[in-house]
Specification:
single chain, mainly alpha, 8 helices, globular
Length: 168
């Protein structure tokens, strides 16, 4: 899934949690935090940029960021629990839900999949595969039904936020 879909899914998760989580801040802040939590596992893309600057884009795109530890659910479960216990319970819950939704989306969309059981197992789970190398993956992905779902999620999040802000 592309960043737009992860952000939109995070916003929708934030809204779903808003009724169940204690001490939720202003809805706009909460939705923004949800979108960022949905994007959080893609922080490894910063590593891509560093790698590209050091070795060039042709080498950088050969690495699959889904195989990096930052794309392992156990890492984000631990980070979320730390936030939940030591910083802010509501944001820890949102980070856990947003990051796990990120992995679910990456598993269900055509990609290289997710190692759900890392470090116990390096088995990649991916029901649909689209293994084009590098940037070709993005071009190929734009022609899949999964991309239409992603656009639908983004539109749903945008309409929802627009209506909620307009009714205030």
């Amino acid at each position: 899934m592309l960043p737009l879909g992860h952000f939109a899914t995070g916003v929708l998760v934030a809204e779903a949690l808003r009724r169940y989580v204690k001490r939720v801040p202003d809805p706009r802040t909460w939705w923004l935090a949800g979108g960022l939590c949905g994007l959080a596992p893609d922080i490894d893309c910063i590593g891509y940029l560093i790698l590209a600057l050091r070795e060039g884009w042709r080498k950088a795109v050969l690495y699959d960021h889904h195989s990096w530890p930052t794309h392992a659910p156990i890492v984000w479960i631990c980070v979320s629990l730390a936030v939940l216990l030591y910083l802010h319970q509501s944001y820890g819950t949102l980070l856990l839900a947003g990051s796990l939704t990120h992995f679910l989306c990456d598993t269900l969309t055509p990609s290289t999949g997710i190692m759900w059981l890392w470090p116990v197992s390096t088995t990649v789970i991916r029901p649909f595969s689209l293994l084009s190398p590098g940037f070709q993956w993005v071009i190929d992905y734009l022609h899949t039904p999964a991309f239409l779902v992603e656009i639908g999620l983004a539109a749903l999040a945008a309409v929802f936020i627009y209506r909620a802000l307009r009714s205030r």
